[in-house]
Write a structure and sequence with these properties.
Blueprint: H1 6-10, H2 20-37, E1 39-40, E2 48-54, E3 71-82, E4 86-96, E5 99-105, E6 110-111, E7 118-122, E8 131-139, E9 144-148, E10 157-160, E11 167-170, E12 172-174, E13 176-177, E14 185-186, H3 199-207
Parallel strand pairs: 1-11, 2-12
Antiparallel strand pairs: 2-3, 3-8, 4-7, 4-9, 4-10, 5-8, 6-7, 9-13, 10-11, 12-14
Amino acid sequence: PESAFLPMIESLPPVPLGSHRVKRNLLLIAAVAAVLGAAAGPVRAQNRYGWTISGSPSDPLSNTGSAAGGVKTLYLWYYCSDGDGMASAEFDIQGDGIAHIGTAPVAPFLNASSSAEKLLLAVGGCPEGPMVAAKLVVVDIPGTLCIVPSADNNRHVTVDCSQTSPQTWNIEWVGYSSLGTAPCKGGTLCESALEASTWAGVKGMYRGQ
């Protein structure tokens, strides 16, 4: 709900005009406003957005691995878009066996959420991906880590870059598994936009196979 973000916005410290912090705070406020104010459902051509959780900072499709038995870093990738770049996104990260204990956004992304599990991301420049959006600090027991709808409003969405009528679009995603099994996923990661007819074909585009 909108009221949940107001204390966070009001608590932002005053800083000199034109400073990096001012720009950062304004972008965070814009992210909150964009997600809360964006209309749900398509009223124009369908946009598609894909996100992944990977064990690699250089390969968005490294979605399985061995259990570390301790603390390690996974990577949240803004993997692809079809139709428009992105301005902001909202979803939760949920672990089963893997405990997600911290989130560190990677520039130019910012995160307006103070909770490890809840993400409210903002980014300038309307990027199309692929790029790392955040580092996820986890305790790997082992288990799985998945992208799920927000517990606040049941949405897992990306907001497009429209300046007049921003829209929310349900995301396609692939999570991470250290169980020796396939990762959790939802959708096909903009497959048609990447001109890949199979999941193996998508992986081959990034791994040079």
